[in-house]
Design the sequence.
RNA sequence: GCGCCCGUAGCUCAGCUGGAUAGAGCGACUGACUACGAAUCAGUAGGCCGGGAGUUCGAAUCUCUCCGGGCGCACCA
């Protein structure tokens, strides 16, 4: 609504500038005036043109206003301040349209969003939650903005053959001296016990959390000789896992698969689902790397270093680096080690070539790994070449269902600490001549979640005096230092449940629990989304467990209030709006005029900003804008709720109008919440 | 040393491609429930927007510089 009007006004002003001054302007800056009394849309264009036109801004503004004349949807224009052009909307027309907004034309977006990507060797923690919530919300926003939601694919990359998994395997084999059979039994026991108790602490990912921390500590203990031996053990274990076909790899597979399943369950509690789980084991076994390596060598992106510290390695020049003539580039990024093994960035380059369909003959085999309650299926990569014994080309899996999306845009939701690595992948693509793809590869970066010293102490961790002085302390899976995702969710649900029990004594056990979960998830997701990406979240239970003020539950509460009102008049939102649209336009305009009704107009105006906010979110890659919008809409509704009593309104036409106001806000709140991945409860 | 991010009210954060009197939540203090359920609302106090210089008609926003904090810069991932 507001978006369409802004575009129309911008276009009209462009036409005026062209016709009157012969000026071609890329775009007209449009903004929201600080006060409704100044109008609804404003532009400082005349101020900007003052220099080129050599005229006073006010004169230009007046000339533009005169030339504009009548524009559909606008009541008029005026010049204000130093030379602003302020536009006033035709309120009656706006409100009528806002009740049943026309469908927008949208482009088809082909996108591949990679998020979560937790090493499958331990329980998910709050840092992973920020990643998953951001990524999931971003995918929802892309789907909302696309005419074809099915072309937005969500992937969760699984590093099932990396050092982190190797560390836990070392723990099982050398600290706990377990056999493959014993590990298999442990996985089964954990699953049984967790299902029976409902406690995440009984599950395998929690078990691994502790074992991983213990193993990491073990590496650093003992004599120098012992440390060296343990380091070697770690390397040997890693190689055995990468190679596959041995007992060590079997344990790695058992653990990474079981932990991955737990991650999917944890994320599902937050409404987060995935389409595809590409695994590193397939990148290796299906020879994606070999194909990528050939291309990298051929294009000259990789070269073999013959001198200096990287002698014997295949390396690539870092983005923006200046290479001195004849000298070895000591700063180059090693892609293939001197022992012939590939680094993480190398594997990532291969994976990204696949994402853009640039690895001829390379495709993942796949199978359904997890079926969600809503029927959606999550696939994982497999090496299923043996299924097709003859005729399968070398290096190609046999995809059963999932295919690469043919992405126009590839978004990697990865925290800011990996921006150098991401830049290297991008640079490799560019170096290979895939300039378009390099531009379409977007690092969706965000800052980490850390713990406040106070929070760390509450959790019982010993904090050094130095750390006590810091504003926040980095979470570390290696040290077992952090807040586990399931623990936090459980804590939130318990807190919400207490509030629900106090207010909803009449409702059944199951329903109260369901409402508590909705509120808990609303609180958690909003907590992660209200902060912009580039600010570090210093986690504190006090803030995270809050259900008041700028929180998810605040918005949900506005939804419940509106539903209660509609319930009392036994009317559905749709019906209320249909009845409203039959009202006379002049009558509606009357309800929107006068200072006592200014807040109602502001509410309609805010409700009409949905598509504008969505566009801003997409343009700025920033879901926080939507979170803020939803909160402001709820806040203005609560204000309205106190000032204008709907059910006791005596004027029947005004009552219809007020009801329609509530109904529109309900619809817009629910859409915004849905994009944020938050449910609107029926009661709370 | 180089690169990225941050510095706005006591605390946690917004501030859209520079624009009209710098905003919200929490906390503090005053008030409003025989209720469209107060997980709410109204009000008060609280800011040389880290310091300085520059560009501009105009700077919290752009440039430079300094100060303070965080994170990267592995033949780890």
Sequence:
């Amino acid at each position: 609504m507001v978006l369409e009007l802004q575009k129309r006004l911008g276009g009209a002003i462009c036409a005026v500038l062209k016709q009157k001054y012969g000026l071609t302007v890329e775009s007209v800056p449009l903004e929201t005036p600080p006060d409704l009394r100044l109008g609804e849309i404003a532009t400082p264009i005349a101020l900007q043109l003052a220099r080129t036109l050599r005229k006073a801004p006010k004169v230009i503004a007046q000339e533009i206003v005169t030339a504009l004349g009548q524009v559909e949807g606008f009541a008029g224009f005026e010049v204000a301040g130093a030379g602003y052009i302020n536009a006033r909307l035709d309120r009656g027309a706006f409100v009528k349209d806002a009740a049943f907004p026309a469908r927008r034309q949208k482009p088809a977006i082909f996108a591949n969003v990679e998020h979560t990507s937790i090493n499958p060797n331990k329980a998910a923690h709050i840092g992973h939650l920020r990643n998953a919530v951001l990524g999931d919300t971003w995918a929802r926003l892309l789907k909302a903005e696309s005419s074809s939601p099915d072309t937005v694919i969500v992937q969760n990359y699984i590093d099932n053959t990396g050092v982190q998994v190797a560390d836990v395997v070392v723990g099982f084999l050398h600290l706990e001296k377990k056999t493959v059979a014993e590990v298999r039994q442990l996985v089964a026991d954990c699953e049984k016990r967790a299902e029976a108790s409902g406690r995440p602490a009984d599950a395998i990912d929690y078990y691994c959390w502790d074992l991983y921390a213990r193993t990491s500590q073990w590496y650093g203990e003992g004599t120098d000789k012992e440390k060296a031996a343990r380091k070697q053990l770690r390397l040997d274990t890693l190689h055995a896992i990468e190679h596959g076909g041995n007992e060590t790899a079997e344990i790695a597979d058992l653990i990474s698969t079981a932990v991955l399943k737990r991650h999917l369950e944890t994320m599902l509690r937050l409404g987060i689902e995935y389409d595809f789980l590409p695994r590193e084991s397939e990148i290796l076994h299906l020879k994606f790397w070999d194909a990528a390596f050939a291309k990298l060598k051929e294009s000259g992106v990789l070269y073999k270093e013959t001198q200096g510290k990287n002698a014997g390695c295949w390396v690539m020049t870092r983005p923006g680096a200046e290479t001195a003539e004849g000298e070895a580039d000591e700063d180059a990024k090693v892609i293939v080690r001197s022992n012939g093994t590939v680094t993480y960035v190398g594997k990532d380059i291969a994976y990204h070539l696949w994402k853009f369909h640039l690895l001829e003959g390379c495709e993942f085999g796949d199978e359904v790994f997890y079926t969600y309650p809503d029927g959606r299926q999550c696939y994982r990569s497999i090496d299923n070449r043996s299924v097709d014994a003859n005729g399968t080309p070398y290096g190609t899996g046999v995809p059963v269902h999932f295919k690469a999306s043919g992405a126009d845009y590839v978004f990697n939701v990865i925290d800011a600490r990996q921006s150098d690595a991401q830049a290297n992948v991008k640079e490799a693509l560019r170096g290979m001549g895939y300039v378009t793809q390099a531009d379409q590869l977007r690092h969706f970066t965000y800052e980490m979640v850390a713990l406040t010293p106070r929070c760390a102490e509450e959790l019982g961790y010993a904090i050094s005096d130095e750390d006590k002085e810091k504003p926040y302390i980095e979470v570390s899976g290696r040290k077992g230092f952090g807040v586990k995702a399931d623990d936090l969710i459980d804590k939130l649900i318990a807190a919400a449940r207490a509030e629900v029990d106090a207010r909803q004594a009449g409702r059944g056990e199951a329903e109260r629990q369901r409402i508590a979960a909705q509120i808990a998830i609303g609180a958690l997701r909003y907590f992660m989304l209200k902060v912009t990406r580039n600010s570090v979240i210093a986690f504190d239970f006090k803030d995270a467990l809050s259900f008041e003020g700028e929180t998810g539950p605040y918005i949900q509460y506005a939804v419940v209030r509106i539903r209660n009102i509609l319930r009392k008049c036994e009317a559905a939102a749709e019906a209320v709006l249909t009845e409203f649209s039959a009202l006379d336009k002049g009558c509606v305009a009357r309800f929107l005029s006068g200072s006592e009704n200014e807040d109602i107009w502001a509410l309609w105006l805010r409700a009409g900003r949905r598509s504008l906010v969505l566009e801003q979110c997409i343009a700025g890659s920033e879901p926080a804008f939507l979170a803020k919008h939803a909160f402001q809409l709820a806040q203005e509704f609560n204000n309205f709720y106190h000032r204008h009593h709907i059910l006791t309104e005596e004027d029947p036409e005004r009552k219809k109008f007020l009801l329609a106001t509530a109904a529109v806000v309900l619809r817009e709140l629910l859409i915004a919440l849905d994009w944020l991945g938050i449910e609107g409860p029926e009661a709370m």
